[in-house]
């Protein structure tokens, strides 16, 4: 029996992303896809980091400015990264196997992201070829997420294909030598459905289904800093480093040629028990000192959280799970609905806090840290 999933294409009426997540879990369960929902929603270990990524935002409180003659009609959220102009500072993180939630897979996500004036980063573990994804919306800008393999021929194959298909940047993931220990997946005996191969990996002769790479686990166990320069030379593209969680690593990445820093703990999916990304952000922003752009992810569920991350030093924020919820319920239009929902919440927060654009948000916003338990 082939894998059966949603093919609905419609705009969504969303109250908030947490509600949408709960409805997503119910819908996937009704379709006998509880295991797949757990794979998407869940995190590593006891999921402490997954939850702290969200709850630690509450420790930062906004101090609004209310006497300023604000013209709310001038409120806007336009942003930019590496010369790419965006309607919103909210972009889409790389995530595997969009075919788990909708028949349009990554093509639907790219189209929906583009229609929201945003940008998508396509995962190495996509259910569609890069040629197919890019061809679905040729005008859409996109980044390519790349993880080093011990097989250099595979590395070259993936990077060359990303360049050929029009990637605007390479996002190098640095998350450790192994996959996180996700107890939900262990309990569920989760495995990717063979009817949903990782097609770009499957195009490489040594991994005929694309799923084989998960069995051999050939992730490179140590990434040398000079490999940043090698990728830049090979591709001619900007390189961002995703998975930065300390100021020290951010400095090391920049000194070795990184064109951007992506703060991430993969939404709490790798190592449990590490600090939340919002806790790490101020330290990393200080270390980067505006030398390169900072993208922030892990924990974003509301526009108010986007506001706080931008105020603490991020240039863009990225979301991974929420676009999949939108894709499941509404295809490309559902992805657009999710991004628009968060942008609307962000703009509402901006106006109530007394700022009309992202530059003023980053330069003029005051946040106070409220120590937990006080």
UniProtKB/TrEMBL annotation:
Molecular function terms, GO-annotated: FMN binding; oxidoreductase activity
Every FMN hydroxy acid dehydrogenase domain range: 13-371
Cited Pfam families: FMN_dh
Ligand binding (glyoxylate): 182, 269
Annotated keywords: Flavoprotein, FMN, Oxidoreductase
Cofactors demanded by this protein: FMN
Alphabetical list of Gene3D superfamilies matching this protein: Aldolase class I
InterPro entries: Aldolase_TIM, Alpha-hydoxy_acid_DH_FMN, FMN-dep_DH, FMN_HAD
Binding site for FMN: 94-96, 123, 145, 242, 264, 297-301, 320-321
Signal peptide: none
Catalytic reaction annotation: (S)-lactate + O2 = pyruvate + H2O2
Assembly mode: Homotetramer.
Stated family: Belongs to the FMN-dependent alpha-hydroxy acid dehydrogenase family.
Protein name per the record: L-lactate oxidase
Species of origin: Liquorilactobacillus mali KCTC 3596 = DSM 20444
């Amino acid at each position: 029996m082939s894998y059966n999933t949603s093919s609905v294409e419609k705009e969504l009426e969303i109250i908030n992303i947490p509600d949408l997540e709960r409805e997503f879990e119910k819908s996937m369960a009704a379709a006998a896809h509880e295991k797949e929902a757990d794979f998407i929603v869940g995190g590593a270990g006891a999921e402490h980091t997954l939850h702290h990524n969200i709850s630690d935002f509450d420790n930062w409180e906004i101090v609004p400015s209310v006497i300023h003659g604000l013209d709310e009609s001038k409120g806007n959220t336009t942003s930019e990264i590496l010369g790419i102009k965006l309607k919103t500072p909210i972009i889409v993180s790389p995530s595997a196997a969009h075919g788990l939630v909708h028949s349009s897979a990554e093509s639907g996500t790219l189209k929906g992201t583009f229609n929201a004036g945003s940008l998508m980063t396509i995962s190495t573990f996509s259910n569609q070829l890069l040629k197919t994804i890019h061809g679905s919306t040729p005008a859409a800008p996109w980044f390519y997420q790349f993880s080093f393999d011990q097989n250099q021929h595979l590395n070259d194959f993936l990077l060359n294909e990303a360049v050929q298909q029009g990637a605007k940047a390479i996002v190098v993931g640095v998350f450790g030598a192994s996959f996180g220990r996700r107890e939900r997946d262990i309990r569920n005996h989760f495995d990717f459905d063979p009817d949903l191969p990782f097609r770009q990996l499957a195009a490489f002769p040594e991994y005929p289904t694309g799923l084989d790479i998960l069995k051999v686990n050939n992730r490179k166990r140590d990434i040398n800093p000079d490999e940043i320069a090698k990728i830049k030379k090979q591709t001619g593209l900007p390189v961002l480093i995703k998975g930065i969680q300390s100021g020290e690593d951010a400095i090391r990445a920049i000194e070795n040629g990184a064109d951007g820093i992506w703060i991430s703990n993969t939404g709490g999916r790798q190592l449990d028990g590490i600090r939340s990304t919002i806790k790490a952000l101020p330290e990393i922003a200080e270390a980067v000192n505006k030398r390169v752009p900072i993208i922030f992810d892990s924990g974003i569920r509301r526009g108010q959280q986007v506001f706080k991350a931008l105020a603490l030093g991020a240039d863009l924020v990225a979301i991974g799970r929420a676009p999949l919820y939108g894709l499941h319920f509404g295809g490309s239009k559902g992805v657009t609905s999710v991004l628009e929902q968060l942008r609307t919440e962000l703009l509402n927060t901006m106006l109530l806090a007394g700022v009309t654009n992202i530059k003023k948000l980053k330069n003029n916003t005051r946040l106070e840290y409220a120590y937990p338990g006080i």
